[in-house]
Design goal:
With 422 residues, the protein is of the alpha+beta class. The protein has helices spanning 19-24, 124-134, 136-156, 172-185, 204-364, 369-389, 397-407, 410-414, and strands at 7-13, 30-37, 46-49, 53-59, 62-63, 73-76, 82-89, 93-103, 109-120, 190-201.
Length: 422
């Protein structure tokens, strides 16, 4: 930490050509900003203006170049009252402003040092504003006061634990100080390009306390980082295991899908094979059915032919048997008819005799009517019994009806009697 503030000077020189050497020389805690060369001799007819500096030339006390600065080089045939009045550095200057016993927010005294980098110009109007309106000495006093005030205000709002955090140029508060100084000195042609707090000094006891606090915080950060690292390792292991399990799961899914696809293909093959076998079996069965059908049709034809033959044989036998039976029946019928006619005649004769006898008896006695009727009825029944005992008698036609009417009375004919003859 610097013991003193940087002093900004206005220095006198003998020859304008010495300006570059003076600006580049080491002056310790002093920085010459403006050089004032000695006046020219009355016999001088020229003078030199070096390059690398901003030069203001006066002619009889007035500005020789109102719109700009004097150009570098040798100026020939110039009277003695045409001379170099001021020479301003073009370099960026570093200003150190140590401030002692600055109270913090905790009312702890600390020493702080602010370092500024500034330049004058390079606009000629800004250079002339600095020389004519401010000057090096006033700028030195003004800048020292502003820096001390800014540093004290900055330290005052900062707690002791955060004082060391102000070091450097990245702090927002330091940048605010830079902006304030730049705005205040802009009207005088001075521009500030950088500001930084280079050092903060505490007493030994406070330094040890803050050092212990810092070490403790460092250990906490290290432990946090170690914990974070361990958590990352755990997370990494978890993610790796999870990825392996996911890959295994995906591989198993792929295997299952492959097995499913193979099974589907095999099923399709089995379906195709089954269809082909079914078609072959159907074809064979159709062929077998066709053969069996042909065989059955041929057997049917043979059976029909045989049946027709057997039918013809049976029909011939039945026809012959029927014819022989018809002839036999006709003969028997004729015999029965003849016998019946004879019986009818016998019955008619008996009936006539009986009628005659009955008439005689009727005439004779009314009282014998019942007995006669009974006898007549018994006679009819005997005739019927005799006719019925004879087998294979067919009674038909008008003669048969007349026979029956003569034998039976109307009550027997009208009664419900069914006779089946074979």
């Amino acid at each position: 930490m610097h013991a003193k503030k940087t002093q900004l000077l206005q220095q006198n020189i003998d020859d304008p050509l010495d300006s570059t050497r003076v600006f580049n020389a080491e002056h310790g805690d002093q920085i010459p900003l403006v050089l004032v060369p000695q006046g020219r001799s009355c016999l001088s007819c020229y003078y030199h203006i070096p390059s690398g500096v901003n030069t203001i030339v006066h002619i009889c006390g007035s500005d020789g170049y109102p719109d700009g600065l004097a150009p570098p080089g040798i100026q020939m045939c110039k009277p003695w009252y045409n001379h170099v009045a001021y020479m301003v550095t073009q370099q960026s200057c570093t200003y150190n402003a140590p401030v002692k016993s600055c109270p913090t927010k905790d009312n702890v005294m600390v020493d702080c040092e602010l370092t500024l980098v500034f330049a004058i110009g390079p606009n000629p109007a800004d250079v002339k504003k600095f020389v004519y309106n401010l000057g090096a000495l006033k700028f030195n006093e003004f800048l020292a006061a502003e820096c001390e005030e800014a540093i004290r205000q900055l330290i005052r709002v900062t707690p002791l634990s955060d004082v060391y955090e102000l070091r450097g140029s990245s702090s927002v508060h330091v940048q605010n100080v830079l902006k304030v100084l730049d705005e205040k000195f802009k009207e005088f042609g001075v521009t500030f390009s950088k500001a930084a707090i280079t050092d903060v000094v505490l007493n030994n006891e406070l330094r040890k306390i803050l050092q212990g606090t810092t070490e403790f915080r460092t250990k906490i950060r290290e432990l946090d980082k170690e914990h974070e690292h361990n958590m990352k390792l755990i997370t990494y292991d978890f993610q790796r295991n999870l990825s392996e399990k996911e890959r295994l799961y995906d591989r198993r899914l792929q295997d299952i899908e492959a097995d499913i696809n193979v099974a589907l293909v095999n099923r399709k093959k089995e379906v195709v094979n089954a269809e082909s076998r079914r078609e072959v079996a159907v074809t064979k069965q159709q062929e077998t059915a066709a053969v069996n059908k042909k065989r059955a049709e041929s057997e049917l034809n043979v059976a029909q032919a045989k049946a027709e033959q057997e039918n013809a044989k049976l029909l011939a036998v039945a026809t012959s048997n029927a014819e022989s039976a018809r002839i036999k029946v006709d003969k028997e019928t004729e015999v029965a008819i003849f016998e019946s006619e004879q019986l009818i005649k016998v019955a008619e004769n008996k009936a006539t005799a009986l009628k005659t006898e009955a008439k005689a008896e009727g005439d004779a006695a009314e009282s014998l009517k019942v007995i006669r009727e009974h006898n007549l009825e018994m006679a009819k029944l005997e005739v019927q019994e005799s006719i019925a005992k004879r087998a294979k008698i067919v009674i038909s036609g008008d003669q048969g009806d007349a026979l029956i009417n003569s034998i039976l009375d109307k009550e027997l004919l009208t009664s419900q009697i069914s006779l089946n003859y074979k």
